[in-house]
Design brief:
The complex is a heterodimer of chains A (287) and B (340). By secondary structure, chain A is mainly α. Chain A is built from 14 helices and no strands. The chains are: A mainly alpha (287), B alpha/beta (340). Bound molecules: adenosine-5'-triphosphate and magnesium ion.
């Protein structure tokens, strides 16, 4: 009967390496979130349906009407489009991270975590890592669907994989924005809608679905400096999906001239800024 | 020497509400403090401040000798918390929940696993260990949450209404666990609505209301303030009340209170069981038929109502009925109602 106290493991002395502890705690939390995903497969499945619908709808509805560098050949549009849809899909990780964290707050789980001697950012890092796994899975399925509807790449496999890594990096960066939103709102529902609304202008005022050539000059500037556009252009380049008739840049914006580098810079910048903000918010998350 | 939990002048406001209004606490090492108070008194807020979850507006707090405001990370290494609402992940099994907490307390995966097994058995969750917590009943979740607070054996523990929602058997078992922990040197701050629980577990009791400490002391000290023993009689017929009253007036040592509706008479006494026999004899001689008679010692319930009943009168003056009911139950404590 008295087993409970006597058998209790002693407190482990403070581990020397702060980084090791951070990584370990983050992985513990990530594992927890991944287990949750397997228990709620609906979430993963719904997460797949939307981008698949986008692929199919855009391909067949807009396919023949949108002019890519002067040609309305549907095959050209398919190849132009896919990087855009992939990029839009990875940004939806924002809503997932936000809703998950808001849910934990709501259920009081964050209080449990915050009272434990764990690394500061681990709850959030664990969440974003789990979302990264989910995003990867989604991208794999989506790429399969894209191939089925006729998308083709024209670069070697290594470059294509780098294209996907570029996309995943953006998704990871955006899940930190989601984390901050999740910590700032009161309910998971608000986090989902709050995580999604602004993604629409962000992803549409870009080069993702149509070339920026047809936009008003003001929007062209916005679109070409949009971090999202840099990733789309970078992925297109790595997939070999750049269109001969579509200029790299209309306004001469630097990110469009060097899309791969620009995309990496943007994503890293977003991670640094939003991770700092989110971790700070988490630490003071007293509701 | 300050105790394992030591707080001075804690203030925390939420908008207009002063949830904590200058609370001082001191819990000597290896003892249990029972924090009592009506709903909204500020108990949970106090626990949240002491467990680093909430920053107070002012005041100081030390837990295990560590400054809560300056070194919250170090404090977290020395505490275990079971909050008012079970904080378990419903999509994980009971075992997975405990393993995760163990690993976050920096145990190795293997130790965390072994410990989870021990705790699941101890809290009667062995059979449900590999089901997701979503399928647990309220009491089972509560027990899982408590087990999570006990994954390591930190020197200072906080439990916010730990037995709320537990059935009598599990409550009893949790009390055993707590006694066992305290015997092992753990310091515990416990909030509760069950005064029996405070009576049984707490060395010291602190009653708070509206964010202020309104009384503190041992259970016996608080009871003594509420007055001594009394006899309660329930007569069979309403017309017997007057005869019973004269018997009780003669043998008791104070004013007799009568509740007409339930035909219940109460009188303060001294003399214990011997006097009780005498009262029964006299009532019998008077031909009074009694349904029930009991010698009552003051309970913490009486203490609680006499202390916080006052607050109810002041703040719920619209609700005269309840104020009167409370006043009735605590007539003999009225005059002693200071707040040291
Ligand atoms: N996050 C918050 N925002 C606003 N008001 C709050 C918040 N937390 C607590 N309060 C207020 O502070 C006061 C004290 O609340 P607290 O939860 O500490 O009470 P309690 O003693 O634990 O009550 P109970 O017995 O019902 O659990 C209440 O009036 C409550 O409404
Ligand atoms: Mg409470």
């Amino acid at each position: 009967m008295s087993a409970i106290a006597k058998d209790a493991p002693a407190l482990v002395p403070r581990p020397a390496g702060g980084i090791t502890k951070s990584v370990r705690d983050s992985l513990v939390v990530a594992k927890r979130n991944l287990i949750r995903m397997t228990r709620i497969p609906e979430m993963v499945i719904f997460g797949l349906i939307q981008p698949i619908m986008f692929v199919v709808l855009f391909t067949y509805v807009f396919g023949g009407s949108i002019s890519i560098g002067g040609s309305t050949d549907p095959q050209l549009y398919k190849e132009f489009l896919m990087a855009g849809i992939f990029a839009q899909t990875v940004t939806f990780a924002t809503a997932g991270a936000g809703a998950g964290i808001a849910d934990d707050m709501h259920k009081g789980l964050i209080d449990r975590f915050r009272s434990l001697p764990m690394a500061r950012g681990a709850v959030l890092t664990g969440r974003t890592l789990a979302d990264l796994v989910q995003t990867t899975l989604t991208l794999v399925v989506l790429a399969g669907v894209a191939l089925i509807v006729g998308w083709r790449t024209h670069e070697n496999l290594a470059k294509v994989i780098c294209g996907f890594l570029l996309l995943l990096l953006l998704g990871y960066a955006f899940s930190w924005i989601g984390a901050l939103i999740g910590l700032s709102v009161r309910t998971p529902e608000a986090a989902t809608s709050g995580g999604l609304i602004w993604l629409f202008p962000l992803t549409f005022i870009s080069n993702a679905f149509v070339p920026v050539t047809g936009m008003p000059t003001f929007l062209q500037h916005v679109a070409e400096w949009n971090p999202f556009s840099a990733t789309v252009a970078g992925a297109r380049e790595l997939f070999g999906n750049t269109m001969p008739g579509v200029p790299k840049s209309v306004t001469g914006a630097w990110p469009m001239e060097h899309p791969i580098l620009a995309s990496v810079i943007w994503s890293v910048l977003i991670i640094v800024v939003f991770r700092t903000l989110a971790v700070r918010k988490y630490r003071s998350a007293a509701v | 020497m300050p105790g394992a939990i030591h707080a001075e002048g804690l203030v925390k406001t939420f908008g207009d509400v002063r949830a904590l209004d200058g609370v001082d606490l001191d819990v000597p090492e290896g003892t249990v403090l029972g924090l009592l108070g009506p709903n909204g008194a500020g108990k949970t807020t106090a626990v949240r401040v002491l467990t680093t979850l909430l920053r107070p507006d002012s005041g100081t707090a030390f837990v295990a000798g560590i400054d809560v405001l300056k070194k919250p990370d170090d404090v977290r290494r020395s505490i275990g918390l079971s909050g008012q609402f079970a904080a378990v992940d419903e999509y994980l099994t009971g075992r997975e929940n405990l393993q995760m907490v163990g690993q976050l307390y920096q145990l190795t995966a293997r130790d965390a696993k072994a410990r989870a097994g021990v705790l699941l058995d101890r809290f009667n969750l062995g059979d449900a260990a590999d089901r997701t917590a979503k399928t647990y009943s309220g009491g089972m979740r509560r027990r899982l949450d408590l087990a999570a607070a006990l994954v390591v054996s930190p020197p200072v523990m906080f439990m916010d209404e730990p037995t709320t929602g537990l059935d009598p058997r599990n409550r009893q078992q949790l009390w055993d666990v707590i006694e066992d922990l305290v015997a092992g040197g753990t310091t515990l701050l416990l909030t509760t609505q069950y005064l029996e629980e405070a009576d049984r577990l707490a060395h010291d009791i602190c009653v708070i209301d509206h964010g202020k400490v309104i009384a503190r002391g041992t259970s016996d000290q608080l009871k003594a303030r509420t007055g001594g023993e009394r006899v309660e009689v329930v007569v069979h017929r309403p017309d017997e009340i007057e005869r019973a009253r004269s018997v009780l007036t003669a043998l008791g040592k104070g004013e007799v209170t009568v509740v007409q509706l339930s035909r219940k008479l109460t009188v303060p006494v001294s003399g214990g069981a011997k006097l009780l026999a005498e009262i029964i004899r006299d009532l019998d001689a008077q031909g009074v038929e009694i349904d029930d008679i009991a010698l009552r010692r003051p309970t913490l319930d009486d203490v609680f109502l006499s202390l916080t009943g006052h607050a109810a009168e002041v703040h719920e003056n619209g609700d005269e009925e309840s104020a009167r009911a409370q006043a009735e139950r605590s007539t003999d404590a009225r005059s002693k109602e200071d707040t040291r």
